[in-house]
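2 proteins. here.
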Amino acid sequence: MRFDDHRVVITAAGRDFGRTLAIRLADLGAEVFLSARTLAAAERVRDEIRDRGKQRVHAFACDLTDPASIRDFAARVGGQTDHIDVLINNGSRYLAGPDLLSASDADVVDTIASGATGTVLTVKNFLPLLLNSVKPDVVTMVSACGTPGHHRSDAHDSFYAAKNAQAGFVDILSKRLRPRGVRVISLYPPDFDNPDPLAEEWETTPRHARAPLAAQSLVECVLFAVSQPRDCFIKAFHFEQV
């Protein structure tokens, strides 16, 4: 699988799974436009990728709780390319704590804004660039917390609220954008292991039936979905929780 002809935008790529996606997609030839809340975080990942000999990578600051920052991110990407092929909505603040009273009002607002409002506004602002592509895909990392009846996470109630908002958004989006040729693909993973893609553990992480879900498998799901012919619309990936 190669992605040399793909231009990919990834939000919250300064660390964790966003960084993993950026590194793996760049390794497979994609031109990557990555963002993080701070420019310094995005530039660190950009430099890691360039140190691997992949030069088609660009770093931007984007605060998903700030509409102006999202607009600026999309405008800056649009200043460098006339289209993007894949938008990966990876950004969403995680907030732990099963007690509703454990979080401040500011933390609740930030959590819901980054996951829910941030995802909607990111798609809205990048949609013109996606519509210029002959193979546009929107990929959203939701969470098992966004599925009806899920209760096995220790995430805060506001994180559940954000993820259910994301789930509702991508569900209607898939129906409304399909006639325009845009596939909307969503992943609903439980908690998963995310080994460093630049470390030996990337190759040695257990991936047997009783092991926790690994980031390697999530990356492979994303790559599989976006590489399918355009008549193959994989709407969602749901995962059994160990």
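next one coming up
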Amino acid sequence: MDSVRSPEWPVAPLGGASANSAAARYGVAPGTGPVVGRAGPPPSAAPPPYRPSSGGLPTPPVGKPAAPPIPVKILVAGGFGVGKTTTVGAISEIAPLTTEAEMTTAGIGVDDPGARSTKTTTTVAMDFGCVTIDRSLKLYLFGTPGQSRFGFMWDDLARGALGALVVVDSSRLDDCFPAIDFFERAGLPFVVGVNAFDGRLALELGEIRWALAIGDHVPLVQFDARDRLSVRDALLVVLDRALDRATRDRRA
């Protein structure tokens, strides 16, 4: 599966705590959005179609609070300057936690953000954000540092994660090899998301798959790290991949 399509959500106005809430971002009350399932053969007994009640969401019984959403940890990884911090910030419903530090002359020749980049800061620890999918599921996003000298943190950040989005710059594919190698060795489900800088790719997706030497079982998607809806679709592919792995492991 190379993509997951879902209905367009209205773009919420920027600014303010209320505008940055899940309901304002997604335009629907939690739990009423589309249901995205795992690609595969249908079950023997198909469940009845979902029909929302006309009265809206049911009110929890008095004295019995609603169960909190299930927390799901997702990593956003990749090389230096590929758009990991931008990805987390574009989708997070809270002000994202970042550990950005000014780039100095000491990094010249060590940290290469690319010829097209105007990057002046770099992540020195991690990024953190969260997004509520519905009232039963909430994603916690952890962005990894991109420089190899901070690679010792990846094992700790990956602990407890269900999947990862590996962000790739199509003009600097060699920078993403360590991230792909890491998740292949760890056995963690991952999706390769090619960030479309300036709205275009340096190579076609088929050429990128060949250059990265990843199998057909690894989803490869194009997205824009600056666009919330585009980031959402890429994360849905990660969730679908993690669900597919969990289902196969349970059957085994």
